[in-house]
Amino acid sequence: MVSDVELVLDAHAVLGEGPIWLPADNMLAWVDIMGHRVHRFDPLTGRDESFDVGQPVGAVAPRASGGLVMALRDGFGLLDTATGRVEMIADTEADIPGNRMNDGKCDSEGRFWAGTMAFDARPGAGALYRLDRDRGVTRMLSDVSISNGIDWSLDNRTMYFIDSLSGLDAFDYEPIGGQITNRRRIATIPPELGVPDGMTLDSEGYLWVAIWGGWMVRRFAPDGRIDREIRVPVARTSSCAFGGPDYADLYITTASPEPGSDEHAAQPHAGGLFRVRPGVTGRPPNQYRG
Ligand code: ZN
User: Fold this and answer.
1) HSE on the CB side for 52, CA within 13 Å?
2) Which of 94, 108, 122, 166 has the most CB atoms less than 10 A away?
3) pLDDT recorded at residue 100
4) Strand 27-32 relative to strand 16-22: parallel, antiparallel, unpaired?
5) What is the pLDDT of residues 18-42, one digit of tens each?
6) Cα–Cα distance between 192 and 149 in angstroms, integer?
7) Could you tell me the distance, in angstroms and rounded to a whole number, from the CA of residue 132 to the centre of ligand 1?
8) pLDDT tens readout for residues 118-168
9) How far is the CA of 244 from the centre of ligand 1 (A)?
């Protein structure tokens, strides 16, 4: 049984991405990467507000002391959501003008992980970084093409990671030191279907993966077996996250077709924010504790 996907915000984002629930606000944060904007959507009122952060923004996460941590074009920054003020706290690849940060998420120890990619998606140009609570930055992976979805298993011993040009991988994860080892592939997406993008784990340990170009979100078992699919009326599904007071709502971000393409008419709500209640719940997000 799959309930219907509902359009909750007809945002017409160029590249809607990075949904994450903000428990303190009871709102969903999401980003429009190329619009340089961080959004907050209030499901109770339907109101959406946004902050211009001055450069491409790939992902955000709630910060324990308030506001958000961000993965920006030039590196990591903080957003004060009361004033809209942006503070850069660590450069990652500010010296590589062809690159920007992309997807990211916090781990259980309050560190923020986010990776990079080339604006032209050139293979191998990106990396994956870990921002610690003391604001130190460590490069955890090199030779990444499009650093995308990331999340951790229920027992916190496995880290899942998507490089969109490769597939869905797992690592052994050591939570105290934040170390990853023993990379292995657990699922690939046939290129004719699309590419794997953003991801979230549910409270049963299964992975929900947005398939960019595939008009869907697909649920995988931890061993990579396909469990089910949710169809979305937009080709470019980009990411998903559970939210709502009971974490039973799965929010799905989407992107617009290429400018000038003939795909606009077939998907009038491209770039919108969608929601479905798939019958399983998610988990509260980890917060940045730096
Ligand atoms: Zn993505």
Assistant:
1) 1
2) 166
3) 95
4) antiparallel
5) 999 999 999 999 999 999 999 999 9
6) 20
7) 22
8) 999 999 999 999 999 999 999 999 999 999 999 999 999 999 999 999 999
9) 22
What topology does CATH give the domain 6-276? Neuraminidase (2.120.10)
Which residues on neighbouring strands pair with residue 91, listed in sequence order? 75
Contacts of 260-264 spanning 24+ positions with Cβ under 8 A: 263/235
CA distance 277 to 267: 22
Other Cβ atoms closer than 10 A to 45: 8
The active-site residue out of 197, 223, 246, 262 is 197
Residue 153 CA to residue 164 CA, distance in Å, equals 20
> What is the Å distance from ligand 1's center to 254 Cα?
10
| CA distance linking residue 224 with residue 208, whole number of Å | 11
Contact in structure between 290 and 131 (CB atoms under 8 Å): yes
Element (H, E) at 212: strand 207-212
Average pLDDT value for the chain: 96
* Domain ranges (residues) in the chain: 6-276
> Which residues are registered as beta bridge partners of 236?
212
**Which one, of 206, 102, 226, 104, lies nearest residue 158 by Cα?**
206
Coil, strand or helix at 205: coil
**Cα 227-233-235 angle, rounded to 5 deg:** 80
Residue type at position 219: R
197 is a catalytic site residue: yes
